[in-house]
Amino acid sequence: MNMKHLALPLLLLLASVSTAAEPLVVSIDTKSSRPEIHPFIYGQFIEHLGRCVYGGIWAEMLEDRKFYFPITADYAPYKSLTETDYPVVGASPWQIVGDPAGVTMQTENAFVGDQTPQLAPGAAIRQNDLGVVSGKEYVGHVWLKAAGSAATSVTVALDSASGDSGDGKPSSQTFAVAAGDYQKHTLRLTAANDTDKASLTIHTVGKAPALVGTVSLMPADNVRGMRADTLALLKELGAPVYRWPGGNFVSGYDWRDGIGDRDRRPPRKNPAWTGVEHNDVGIDEFIDFCREVGAEPMIAANTGFGDAYSAAQEVEYCNGDGDTIGGSWRVKNGSAEPYNVKYWCVGNEMFGAWQLGFMQLAQYTQKHNLVAAAMRQVDPALVLVGVGELGGRDP
Fold this sequence. Notes:
alpha+beta; five-stranded parallel beta sheet
């Protein structure tokens, strides 16, 4: 018997439950069935909020690896963040080691975003409170450049012997940093102890200053940037579809920030929540994630601060041929074949005044229709999903 199609109403005939001594009789009516439950009812939802993406699915261990916040002597990385006080002085998770004057933030020709740290000879920055496992390898990279015409050298060290965690010298690598353009250096470091108080230090050991473009550190068992342990659990969950990137987040999100070289994607203030959106996880990473866990991708288009043209171009990036503008970007970024994303959400909870880009119903109806029409013009086969509120409220 195929239980999938029974849809059971189970007629539970509870015979005389007044006394515990009497048996419980259950009868099943197999002659009656209801419509099959759609498998997407067990779908899941991903939003760039809290530890869902960064620290959850994504394996990056470092906070603010692109230096959105200025590194200052006022080290207080858990300082509360507000929308009107950005970037917050003292909010950087990077701590200056030694003389604070040795670390300056350069805003001219920044590697990515608005600023790049420059480390004078002997200066160092450190990020604390990293969780590591004894004997486990951690991999990544760092972009370095000599700040002037003279070459220098930089040491990157993973120290897992902090506090009472144990003994052992830091695992370190020293790189020769030539004058000229930024160079990418590969990191392979091994933890000596189990601890959640490990630290990563970047130290200019040469006689000339160095610029640190960006840095990344992940467990060596990461799966193309995704956490192996999280993937194992999600595969066990077996969700048939994942919706991304939000949530309220999508109404202020520009999908173009999340494509191309991850190290060159700009860090932004999270548009809906607190903290930084690193833009390390964008469309390409989301599609890769869905393929890895065997799920159908569902992408939400931005109808808050977004517009019809941007939504249509996003569809083009995913489903268009290489001779389209969006499709050519996808090809350039390494995916020659279209992703053929079928399911799309037109906005998110735009009925709510809390939503970025909220507008009156009559106006939003026009915007919704414009966006939906533009998306279908790129790919008529799309299945579009709208999000509404049926509680009778008049926004």
